[in-house]
Amino acid sequence: MKDHIRGYLDRLEAALATIPAEQVEDLSARLYRSYQDGKQVFVLGNGGSASTASHMAADLAKNTIGPNMRRFRIISLNDNIPLLTALSNDMGYHRVFAEQLVNLIRPGDVLVVISGSGNSPNVLRAIEYARGQCAQIVGLLGFSGGRAAELCDTAIIVSSDDYGVVEDAHLILNHILVEYFRDRLLREVPTYA
Fold first, then answer.
1. Distance separating alpha carbons of residues 159 and 143, to the nearest angstrom
2. 3-state class of 75 per DSSP?
3. Which of 52, 73, 75, 171 is buried most deeply by CB count within 10 Å?
4. Which domain holds residue 80?
5. Is 18 within a domain?
């Protein structure tokens, strides 16, 4: 068991070392501009990435605030189960995210897609729809990034073909962003006399 533990941690460490800091900085800049401009952020993913999308939306919505602060306008498109199942049943799972964006996304909003492979049809359709609405698209991806890497404005690719390692790295990126914004926004809050 010790060898297995060490092996997994070594693979995770190697994958984290490949994440380009410039792309993470670009994502943080896009999120900050959306916060400043009152734009909406949408997050989505399938399977374990759906869990990360929900986690990211919850963390950025709640764990970045303090007294007298505006909050991030962020939602996960994975969290309305009745709508997900209705869209899947009536229109097909490949349209489950794009159809939600029809009602919600506006120019300048940010779509964060989280995907291990970057090739899921429902993720790609959401990207294409968001691009048509002049939204910004960021991908937290794995493997080689898949087709999503080509379609995103910024693609943060965790260079690993191990889904567990990719999903762990995406969650670490989420926590890096949350800590950064919590500290930055608290410093920028005006002091009220």
1. 5
2. strand
3. 52
4. 2-188
5. yes
Tell me which amino acid residue 98 is: A
Q: Report the CATH number that the domain containing residue 39 is assigned in CATH.
A: 3.40.50.10490
What is the amino acid identity at position 186?
Answer: L
Q: Give the pLDDT confidence of 21-67 residue by residue, as tens digits.
A: 999 999 999 999 999 999 999 999 999 999 999 999 999 999 988 77
Residue 193 lies in a domain: no
pLDDT in tens, 136-159: 999 999 999 999 999 999 999 999
DSSP 21-60: HHHHHHHHHHHHHHHHTT-EEEEEESTHHHHHHHHHHHHH
Q: pTM above 0.85?
A: yes
Q: Is residue 56 part of a domain?
A: yes
Please check whether residue 15 lies inside any domain of the structure.
Answer: yes
- pLDDT, position 20: 92
Q: Letter for the amino acid at 131?
A: R
Give the DSSP H or E segment for 76: strand 73-76
**Residues 6 or more apart in contact with residue 40 via CB below 8 angstroms:** 34, 73, 74, 75, 104, 105, 106, 109, 110
Please say whether the beta carbons of 143 and 27 come within 8 A: no
Number of domains making up the chain:
1
